[in-house]
Amino acid sequence: MDFELNTGEYRRDELISLIERSLKKLTLQELEALYYDMSTKNYINDN
Questions:
Q1: Rounded to whole angstroms, how far apart are CA atoms 31 and 17?
Q2: What is the dihedral of CA 46, 14, 28, 41, to 10 degrees?
Q3: Looking at residues 14-34, what average pLDDT do you find?
Q4: How far apart are CA 42 and CA 5, in angstroms?
Q5: CA-to-CA distance for 2 and 5, rounded, in angstroms?
Q6: pLDDT at 29 over 70
Q7: Confidence at 17, pLDDT banded by 50, 70, 90
Q8: What is the band of 40 on the pLDDT scale with cuts at 50, 70, 90?
Q9: How many Å apart are CA 12 and CA 32, to the nearest integer?
Q10: Beta carbons of 15 and 22 less than 8 angstroms apart
Q11: Higher model confidence: residue 40 or residue 6?
Q12: Is 27 left (phi over 0), alpha (psi -120 to 50) or beta?
């Protein structure tokens, strides 16, 4: 992916897609660790 050429919504969508594909490959333990890390940094809000 060429970050210099892709800006705005297209870049955002591509990054989200890449992250989603990567998340699908994680084990349950890896997902739980990621969840814990993100929640302690307030990236995730469990309301």
A1: 17
A2: -40
A3: 97
A4: 31
A5: 6
A6: yes
A7: very high
A8: very high
A9: 25
A10: no
A11: 40
A12: beta
Q: How many residues does the chain have?
A: 47
Q: Is residue 23 a contact partner of residue 16, using CB atoms and an 8 Å limit? A: no
Residue 1 has pLDDT above 80, yes or no: no
Written as six digits, the tokens of 47 are: 């309301």
DSSP string covering the chain, please?
A: --TTT--HHHHHHHHHHHHHHHHTTS-HHHHHHHHHHHHHTTSS---
> Residue 8, Cα to own-chain centre: how many angstroms?
17
Maximum pairwise Cα distance, the chain: 37
